[in-house]
Amino acid sequence: MLEVQDLEVRYGRIGAVVDVSLRVDKDEIVGLMGPNGAGKSSVIKSIIGLVKPTRGRISFMNKDIQDLATEDIIVAGIAMAPEGRELFPYLTVEENLLMGAIGSRSWKAREDRLEFAYSIFPRLKERKKQIAKSLSGGEQQMLTIARALMSDPKLLLVDEPSLGLSPKVTSLVFKLLKSIREEGITILLADQNARRILDTCDRAYLIENGRIVKEGRTEDLKEDKTIKEVYLGL
Ligand SMILES: Nc1ncnc2c1ncn2[C@@H]1O[C@H](COP(=O)(O)OP(=O)(O)O)[C@@H](O)[C@H]1O
Ligand SMILES: [Mg+2]
Q1: pLDDT tens-digit readout, 132-161
Q2: Which atom number of ligand 1 is nearest to the Cα of residue 45?
Q3: Phi-psi bin for 88: left (phi > 0), alpha (psi -120 to 50), beta?
Q4: Which pLDDT does position 190 carry in this prediction?
Q5: Is residue 62 part of a domain?
């Protein structure tokens, strides 16, 4: 479904992504894990068109998208829940959700998307009139993901959902991501938390200093000696 080939991202003289190739097949949930500063967000932002890669190819459903504008990439079927959430703090939950309804052809389509988002996140429905700022961290993260679902994506990119959340709330959010995948939405999930990635995803890539250094099925990566020692503290 998604194929990233030989991606390079530079910010001035800094090479944030040196050479990244990865793929996500339909109905998979794929992880991109690695330490802070490794280049995860740069990869995610390149896919959604917020960062312009200096080299490489990104194709989605057999079409090159690396030169498209973000809104066209969203219409093509990719959505992103950004790192740091970037909600509209003084808009209500429902208003934030409607901001994500890019490309909806009708009010009916928007209503259907709202119902879908609320079916996955019933807590957001209970709080739909509250302003985003008044939500807990976990609820804000749910709202970020729900807003991304409003554009009816085929592929959902989620960047660092565990940021600032307790272990208990993190595991709830990751569980909800699995249920989104069960609804037929393919997911690429970037997070520093290797344990969560390995427990949630089908396959994963480990990125360090802008390069993919390991990849494979998560059940195999869990047995990898370096990953165990460096990332799982075993
Ligand atoms: N807008 C930017 N300008 C300059 N350097 C940046 C910018 N964004 C990220 N970087 C640098 O690029 C590298 C990769 O960052 P990032 O993609 O955010 O990694 P991660 O998401 O894995 O933490 C880091 O060294 C970071 O400091
Ligand atoms: Mg990041």
Answers
A1: 999 999 999 999 999 999 999 999 999 999
A2: 17
A3: beta
A4: 98
A5: yes
